[in-house]
Structures are given as C-alpha cells and as structure tokens.
Amino acid sequence: MALVSLEVESIRKGWEEKEQTFDQIAEPYPNEHSCRFVEPQKGARYRRVNDKFRIGGKRVDVIYMIIGGANSTNVKIQAMRFPTSIWSADAARKYCSSKGGSFHAATG
C-alpha cells in the first residue's frame, strides 16, 4: 500500500467520531492562530487531529478536508492550528508564510 494511501486510511479511521462541521472550522478560534491552505467548502467533511506534529517542540493541530463519498481519496490539509498558549502570532505567521498558507491570528 502506498504511503499516501496509508495516510488517507489513518485519517479515515474513526472519521465519524472526530468529524467537525463547516461552522466549527470556518472561523479562527479565540485561542488559536490558523494557517489556511484551502478555503472551507460546504458539503465537504472535516477531521481535526490534535498534536499531529511538532515544530521546534511546539504543538501543531491539523484539520483535514475530504471531498466526496466515504471511499474518496481526495483528502487535503485544510488548515493548521497553533495554540496561543505556546505560539506567538509572529512565530505562527512566519511558519505559515514559509508553507504558503494564509495566516489568521487568534480572535481573543
């Protein structure tokens, strides 16, 4: 099985229990900075994976977007989230910019 297929399968595993709605992911949160790669789309499904990876020892959460039916392999990283308790706006903005994302500072 290809690496991409394994990643898609790991994202799909338990999808329903961790699925988020469009409204839950569309706006920045008061305690998280956001780095958006793909605009949210109504009708798509979303899954958040907390602490997906670390950058310089700091936690990064990932929101995946899946377009299509239950067997779709059209999965993209929609956004990354940076907790304000450990990420300054400047540090999150710098990382986001280096990856080509659109930065949105926390609202709180």
How would you explain this protein's 3D organization?
The protein is of the alpha+beta class. It has one domain (3-104). 27% of the residues lie in helices and 36% in strands. It contains 4 helices and 6 strands, in the order ααβαββββαβ. It has helices at 3-12, 15-18, 22-26, 89-98; strands at 19-20, 32-36, 45-55, 58-66, 75-83, 102-104. It has a 6-stranded antiparallel sheet with strand order 1-3-4-5-2-6. Strand 4 (58-66) and strand 5 form a beta hairpin. The protein is globular and about 35 Å long. The N and C termini lie far apart (43 Å).
Uncertain runs are: 1-6
* Rg calculated over all Cα atoms: 14 Å
- Mean of all residue-level pLDDT scores: 81
Shape assignment = globular
What is the total domain count? 1
Alpha plus pi helix count: 4
List key phrases describing it.
4 helices, single chain, alpha+beta
Walk me through the topology:
Blueprint: H1 3-12, H2 15-18, E1 19-20, H3 22-26, E2 32-36, E3 45-55, E4 58-66, E5 75-83, H4 89-98, E6 102-104
Antiparallel strand pairs: 1-3, 2-5, 2-6, 3-4, 4-5
Question: Can you give me a brief rundown of this structure?
Answer:
This protein has 4 helices and 6 strands.
